[in-house]
């Protein structure tokens, strides 16, 4: 029984007979040739047509998907700068963001960079050309600012530790924000605007600025606020895209300049003959693909400016063909770019190209064979079969009934069947069973010409589906009627379609697809349905009018008009309504696309209803905010007025204290000074007792004054630490020596211990440390009648910030009741009135000590038991220094009479207008072995310094005609006419406020002592600043009548010992020395100015050796002193010696000239 297949279209066909048809036995040459050529050409043409259509569809689909991804990314990327600009401009207009405070603006912009990582930089240019800029670059943030917030020098700073300006990374001399493109264009358009793409002034990239002018409420221009986005971001995005296999994309502007690309070999810069970078045009690109794509644009469209809709162009680069799709990207505020996507045909048709070559070979072979013999029909049939075997599509030949009689290898491999299995099947068996009826109807419609292709999937042998696009047509096979079937594998296109579907369905915006020309709804995403409260089945195939989407018909008409004119709508604000009639605001865009021969309108709308409502709420709150701001402004004004009054009162208090300090200290200087001088004279026991009481009372009064002044500094927040290197051992030794007499007088055991781990060389404020110890130890001795007072020092934690030292002072005194202890460190606080009457004191010492300890990053406390004694402790943080360094405070050796005798010939000039103070100071100096000269004001001091050499000046501050500060500035001036502008000057002043010392040192003085004069302090200052070789002794030594002293200046015998009596050589060496030595001294002076102790040490060492060989003993000795000072790092000592070095050189020259 003959088997009848259920899918057969006709009855079974008989087997093909082996006997040849008479037509094939002796074929005439011309008919055979025509048959062969026609068949091969038809098959090749048909294949080419089918392949090229499918290829173009796939390439257009990939280009459209790529363009949509790029456009969506760019629109999102370009929206953030506009939002940030609006925020900043609104804050500046309201006065909430001060436009005059450069650092506040930089910090505010830096916070915005933290909030919006997509932004490269935020900045503001004011009307004076100044700039405040915060930005990011790979791996770090930075600030850029003009100096003084105006046009001029421009610095780029790194990010500091406190998120403020750090070190300077780059500097430009001339910068004016008003000349930059972003500033000028914002003012020209008076609204939010994009600048032209421009090259960064650093020359290392392209940037685009979104700028907006800022005006205050009176419409006065404040400047321009701007946000930078570097196009490197777009370039990185494009480079990270996978466009097919080897596709590329680039973005250009309407002028033809390349802005960004995915091609690694495409540069956006060109360098002219002066090595100045400029933007590269597409036609000048070093990427061959992009350059040829640009040529194709200009060839087909004359100029990119004419592109108003999506354009597809085919072009050739080298031996390869490409499809180029160009899509405009436009924004209302100035963006007008072109998105260009390049798809190589080789990504899709490598197999097709191979088949084409085989096809042309077959045609050529067929022509040659036909000319040779027409009898080789079988060979021609085999070539025809080879053609089907070589193409990349799936090919099948069936009888009209549908039974398969031929399949190519590609079909069998794709579906997994053998040749024998295929030839036992019907074509309908290749489709899944569930859709076979649909497949049969589709195939019959295609044979009848009612349908062009079939997109139903085929079924592989393993049960998997294969996506294809199939076409069939009638023909002949071996002279019999047959049906040819060709199926194109469209899995890539289907996958691309699925990706588009995912983007379409998962997009947070409302997306819809409308079939043109009637604009009937073809598809929508879930966001569209959820936002507008529709069901999909209720709205498909309906128009916007039928859905009543637009409550305002004129909006729909305007959109339709724009679509008809340009084929697209971008970023247009519209209002639609949902199924319940509720209004929705949105940003609308639409593009016309094509698919499978049909035209659609793809629309996207971002719902901004909540933002609109927020804007309305913001506008409503503005009124409330303005009222609040007004009230706040009034409160701030009132607060400022109160603060101003408080500041004035504080200034008046400071001025009063400074004045009273000077007025009290001036007579106190006389009282203490005269009593000290009186103690040096022969006195009776009674007179000495009265004099000591007078001096003790004056010293006590001075201590009270000092405590009050310290307290005023603390209350004003102006107490500062002076950090210097010092020796802790030296400080403790001097302190114990000073306090021991008080303890010895009361018969107390007074001792001090220090752990071995405690370093001796430290850096800190040694004077304040001594003050703390004086207050605590002084109290311990004062309140202890018997027993002991001890001091112990131990080492605490050490880290990068320094070392902690713990100090403990214990006594066996009267102790302190527990309920009084919490008040002990308060101002003017004492245990009780009885102790005040018995022991005296103001109650300020411990309060001041507590503040000093806190300033040294420490703490202070105590424990006590009444009748048993007290234990006070404190710890402070100090810096540890190199053991080799020479400290400048408190480690000074005790000054001896021998030391002062060595300097007793020094010439000291005393500048003091007060006669009593003159006498006190002269008396002190005379007791020390000096013979000072006194003048009454600064003018007299200048005249004295011009006439004769001096070693040191003691300078009062407040004097008539010319005060001490002005006189010092005049002395230091190089053209002052004084003999030694670098002479040491020590200030003597009754002022004791915080700024007094800084004022003296800033004027050029070397040191500072306060009145009443303290003999120890004055002696220490003299020892510190008096030169090793006083001018007074030098004047005597340089008397050329004394041959020995002349030899000290220049001992000619030294040279003769080296050179004999060769006078010619001696003269040459002397002449060369006189040329080089002054230059060496000038170099030393410059190195001192530059604080280069290493250079000073080297030059002084060199000069010392040369001078010694020359026999210039005085010059060599002074150079040696300077070498030692430089080695110790004592620049001040070098400055003092410099004048003597120059004087010794002048005297040496004079001596050599005479010889």
Automatic annotation (TrEMBL):
<dbReference type="InterPro" id="IPR000014">
    <property type="entry name" value="PAS"/>
</dbReference>
<feature type="modified residue" description="Phosphohistidine">
    <location>
        <position position="1101"/>
    </location>
</feature>
<dbReference type="InterPro" id="IPR036097">
    <property type="entry name" value="HisK_dim/P_sf"/>
</dbReference>
<feature type="domain" description="Histidine kinase">
    <location>
        <begin position="659"/>
        <end position="880"/>
    </location>
</feature>
<dbReference type="Pfam" id="PF13426">
    <property type="entry name" value="PAS_9"/>
</dbReference>
<dbReference type="InterPro" id="IPR035965">
    <property type="entry name" value="PAS-like_dom_sf"/>
</dbReference>
<keyword id="KW-0547">Nucleotide-binding</keyword>
<dbReference type="Pfam" id="PF00072">
    <property type="entry name" value="Response_reg"/>
</dbReference>
<dbReference type="GO" id="GO:0000155">
    <property type="term" value="F:phosphorelay sensor kinase activity"/>
</dbReference>
<dbReference type="Pfam" id="PF02518">
    <property type="entry name" value="HATPase_c"/>
</dbReference>
<dbReference type="InterPro" id="IPR004358">
    <property type="entry name" value="Sig_transdc_His_kin-like_C"/>
</dbReference>
<dbReference type="InterPro" id="IPR011006">
    <property type="entry name" value="CheY-like_superfamily"/>
</dbReference>
<keyword id="KW-0902">Two-component regulatory system</keyword>
<dbReference type="InterPro" id="IPR005467">
    <property type="entry name" value="His_kinase_dom"/>
</dbReference>
<dbReference type="InterPro" id="IPR008207">
    <property type="entry name" value="Sig_transdc_His_kin_Hpt_dom"/>
</dbReference>
<keyword id="KW-0812">Transmembrane</keyword>
<dbReference type="GO" id="GO:0006355">
    <property type="term" value="P:regulation of DNA-templated transcription"/>
</dbReference>
<dbReference type="InterPro" id="IPR036890">
    <property type="entry name" value="HATPase_C_sf"/>
</dbReference>
<dbReference type="InterPro" id="IPR000700">
    <property type="entry name" value="PAS-assoc_C"/>
</dbReference>
<keyword id="KW-0067">ATP-binding</keyword>
<dbReference type="Pfam" id="PF00989">
    <property type="entry name" value="PAS"/>
</dbReference>
<feature type="domain" description="PAC">
    <location>
        <begin position="570"/>
        <end position="620"/>
    </location>
</feature>
<feature type="domain" description="HPt">
    <location>
        <begin position="1062"/>
        <end position="1155"/>
    </location>
</feature>
<dbReference type="InterPro" id="IPR013767">
    <property type="entry name" value="PAS_fold"/>
</dbReference>
<dbReference type="InterPro" id="IPR036641">
    <property type="entry name" value="HPT_dom_sf"/>
</dbReference>
<keyword id="KW-0597">Phosphoprotein</keyword>
<dbReference type="InterPro" id="IPR033479">
    <property type="entry name" value="dCache_1"/>
</dbReference>
<dbReference type="GO" id="GO:0005524">
    <property type="term" value="F:ATP binding"/>
</dbReference>
<dbReference type="InterPro" id="IPR003661">
    <property type="entry name" value="HisK_dim/P_dom"/>
</dbReference>
<comment type="subunit">
    <text>At low DSF concentrations, interacts with RpfF.</text>
</comment>
<feature type="modified residue" description="4-aspartylphosphate">
    <location>
        <position position="956"/>
    </location>
</feature>
<keyword id="KW-0472">Membrane</keyword>
<dbReference type="Pfam" id="PF00512">
    <property type="entry name" value="HisKA"/>
</dbReference>
<protein>
    <recommendedName>
        <fullName>Sensory/regulatory protein RpfC</fullName>
        <ecNumber>2.7.13.3</ecNumber>
    </recommendedName>
</protein>
<dbReference type="GO" id="GO:0005886">
    <property type="term" value="C:plasma membrane"/>
</dbReference>
<feature type="coiled-coil region">
    <location>
        <begin position="611"/>
        <end position="649"/>
    </location>
</feature>
<keyword id="KW-1133">Transmembrane helix</keyword>
<dbReference type="InterPro" id="IPR029151">
    <property type="entry name" value="Sensor-like_sf"/>
</dbReference>
<keyword id="KW-0808">Transferase</keyword>
<keyword id="KW-0175">Coiled coil</keyword>
<feature type="domain" description="Response regulatory">
    <location>
        <begin position="907"/>
        <end position="1026"/>
    </location>
</feature>
<dbReference type="Pfam" id="PF02743">
    <property type="entry name" value="dCache_1"/>
</dbReference>
């Amino acid at each position: 029984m003959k088997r009848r297949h259920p899918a057969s279209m006709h009855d079974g066909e008989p087997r093909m007979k082996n006997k040849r048809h008479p037509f094939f036995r002796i074929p005439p040459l011309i008919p055979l040739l025509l048959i062969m050529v026609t068949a091969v050409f038809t098959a090749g043409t048909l294949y080419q047509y089918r392949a090229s259509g499918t290829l173009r569809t796939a390439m257009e689909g990939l280009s459209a998907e790529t363009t949509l991804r790029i456009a969506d990314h760019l629109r999102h990327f370009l929206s953030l700068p506009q939002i940030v600009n609006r925020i900043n401009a609104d804050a500046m207009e309201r006065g909430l963001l001060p436009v005059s405070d450069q650092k506040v603006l930089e910090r505010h912009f830096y916070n915005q960079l933290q909030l919006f990582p997509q932004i490269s930089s935020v900045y503001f240019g004011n009307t004076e050309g100044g700039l405040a800029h915060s930005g990011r670059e790979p791996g770090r943030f930075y600030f850029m600012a003009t100096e003084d917030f105006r046009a001029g020098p421009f610095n780029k700073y790194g990010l500091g530790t406190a998120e403020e300006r750090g070190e300077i990374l780059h500097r430009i001399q001339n910068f004016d924000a008003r000349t930059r493109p972003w500033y000028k264009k914002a003012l020209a358009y008076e609204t939010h605007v994009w600048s032209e793409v421009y090259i960064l002034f650093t020359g290392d990239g392209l940037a685009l600025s979104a700028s907006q002018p800022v005006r205050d409420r009176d419409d006065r221009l404040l400047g321009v606020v701007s946000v930078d986005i570097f196009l490197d971001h777009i370039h990185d995005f494009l480079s990270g895209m996978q466009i097919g296999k080897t596709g590329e994309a680039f973005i250009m502007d309407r002028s033809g300049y390349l802005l960004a690309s995915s091609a690694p070999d495409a540069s956006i810069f060109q360098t002219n003959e002066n090595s100045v970078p400029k933007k590269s045009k597409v036609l000048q690109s070093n990427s061959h693909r992009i350059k040829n794509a640009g040529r194709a644009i200009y060839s087909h469209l004359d100029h990119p400016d004419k592109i108003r809709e999506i354009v597809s162009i085919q072009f050739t680069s080298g031996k390869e063909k490409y499809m180029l799709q160009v899509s405009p990207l436009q924004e209302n505020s100035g963006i007008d770019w072109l998105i260009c996507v390049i798809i190589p045909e080789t990504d899709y048709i490598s197999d097709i190209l191979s088949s084409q070559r085989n096809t042309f070979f077959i045609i050529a072979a067929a022509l040659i064979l036909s000319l040779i013999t027409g009898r080789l029909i079988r060979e021609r049939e085999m070539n025809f079969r080879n053609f089907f075997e070589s193409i990349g599509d799936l090919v099948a030949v069936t009888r009209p009934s549908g039974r398969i009689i031929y399949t190519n290898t590609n079909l069998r491999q794709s579906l997994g069947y053998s040749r024998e299995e295929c030839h036992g099947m019907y074509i309908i068996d290749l489709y899944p069973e569930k859709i076979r009826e649909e497949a049969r109807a589709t195939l019959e419609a295609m044979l009848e010409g009612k349908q062009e292709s079939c997109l139903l999937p085929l079924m592989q042998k393993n049960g998997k589906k294969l996506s294809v696009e199939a076409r069939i047509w009638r023909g002949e096979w071996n002279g019999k009627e047959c049906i040819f079937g060709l199926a194109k594998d469209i899995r890539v296109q289907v996958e691309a379609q699925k990706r588009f579907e995912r983007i379409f369905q998962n997009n947070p915006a409302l997306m819809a697809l409308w079939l043109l020309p009637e604009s009937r709804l073809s598809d929508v995403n879930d966001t569209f349905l959820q936002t507008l409260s529709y069901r999909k089945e209720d709205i498909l195939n309906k128009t916007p009018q039928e859905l009543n989407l637009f409550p305002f018909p004129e909006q729909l008409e305007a959109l339709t008009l724009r679509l008809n004119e340009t084929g697209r709508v971008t970023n247009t604000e519209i209002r639609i309504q949902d199924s319940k009639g509720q209004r929705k605001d949105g940003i609308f865009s639409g593009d016309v696309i094509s698919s499978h021969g049909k035209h659609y309108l793809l629309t996207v709308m971002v719902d901004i209803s909540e933002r609109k409502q927020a804007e309305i709420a913001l506008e409503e709150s503005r009124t409330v905010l303005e009222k609040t701001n007004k009230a706040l402004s009034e409160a701030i004004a009132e607060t400022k007025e109160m603060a101003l009054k408080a500041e004035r009162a504080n200034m008046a208090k400071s001025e009063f204290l400074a004045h009273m300090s000077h007025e009290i200290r001036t007579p106190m200087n006389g009282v203490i000074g005269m009593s000290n001088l009186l103690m040096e004279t022969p006195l009776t026991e009674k007179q000495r007792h009265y004099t000591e009481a007078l001096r003790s009372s004056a010293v006590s009064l001075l201590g009270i004054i000092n405590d009050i002044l310290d307290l005023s500094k603390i209350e004003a927040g102006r107490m500062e630490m002076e950090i210097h290197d010092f020796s802790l051992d030296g400080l403790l030794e001097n302190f114990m020596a000073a306090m021991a007499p008080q303890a010895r007088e009361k018969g107390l055991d007074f001792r001090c211990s220090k752990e071995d781990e405690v370093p001796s060389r430290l850096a800190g404020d040694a004077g304040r440390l001594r003050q703390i110890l004086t207050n605590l130890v002084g109290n311990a001795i004062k309140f202890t009648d018997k027993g002991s007072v001890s001091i112990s020092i131990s080492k605490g934690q050490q880290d990068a910030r320094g070392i902690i030292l713990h100090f403990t002072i214990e006594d066996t005194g009267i102790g302190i009741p527990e309920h009084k202890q919490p008040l002990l460190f308060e101002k003017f606080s004492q245990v009780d009135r009885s102790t005040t009457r018995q022991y005296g004191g103001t109650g300020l010492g411990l309060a001041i000590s507590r503040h000093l300890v806190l300033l040294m990053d420490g703490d202070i406390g105590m424990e006590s038991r009444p009748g048993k004694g007290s234990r006070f402790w404190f710890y402070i943080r100090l810096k540890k220094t190199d053991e080799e360094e020479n400290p400048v405070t408190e480690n000074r050796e005790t000054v001896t009479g021998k030391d002062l005798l060595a300097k007793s010939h020094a010439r000291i000039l005393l500048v003091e207008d007060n006669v009593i103070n003159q006498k006190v100071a002269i008396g002190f100096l005379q007791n020390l072995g000096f013979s000072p000269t006194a003048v009454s004001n600064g003018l007299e001091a200048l005249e004295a310094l011009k006439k004769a050499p001096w070693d040191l000046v003691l300078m009062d501050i407040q004097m008539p005609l010319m005060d001490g500060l002005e006189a010092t500035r005049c002395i230091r001036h190089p053209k002052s006419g004084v003999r030694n502008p670098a002479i040491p000057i020590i200030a003597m002043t009754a002022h004791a406020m915080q700024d007094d010392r800084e004022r003296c040192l800033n004027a050029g003085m070397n040191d500072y002592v306060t009145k009443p004069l303290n003999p120890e302090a004055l002696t220490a200052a003299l020892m510190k600043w008096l030169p090793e070789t006083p001018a007074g002794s030098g004047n005597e030594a340089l008397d050329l009548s004394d041959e020995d002293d002349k030899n000290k200046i220049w001992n000619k015998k030294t040279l003769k010992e080296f050179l004999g009596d060769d006078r010619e050589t001696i003269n040459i060496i002397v002449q060369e020395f006189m040329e080089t030595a002054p230059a060496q001294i000038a170099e030393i002076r410059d190195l001192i100015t530059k604080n280069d102790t290493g250079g000073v040490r080297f030059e002084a060492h060199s000069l010392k050796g040369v001078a010694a060989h020359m026999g210039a003993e005085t010059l060599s000795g002074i150079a040696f002193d300077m070498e030692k000072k430089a080695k110790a790092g004592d620049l001040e000592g070098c400055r003092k010696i410099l004048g003597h070095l120059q004087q010794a050189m002048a005297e040496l020259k004079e001596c050599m000239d005479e010889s």
